[in-house]
Design a protein that fits this description.
two-stranded antiparallel sheet; two-stranded antiparallel ribbon
């Protein structure tokens, strides 16, 4: 029975960000550019 449940588990679906095109989870702030819903929500500083 434990092995039967493994077929039910699925990976999270990713969408592409509307601003930068990077894959991110739906209904969350994009981790690469910091945008949500077409608006800049958080500032992401580039790591050099």
């Amino acid at each position: 029975m434990r092995r039967a449940y493994n077929s039910v588990l699925k990976l999270p679906q990713l969408i592409s960000c509307t601003q930068c095109g990077a894959p991110s989870l739906p209904h969350r702030v994009c981790p690469s550019c910091g945008c949500y819903g077409g608006k800049q929500v958080i500032n992401i500083e580039a790591v050099a």
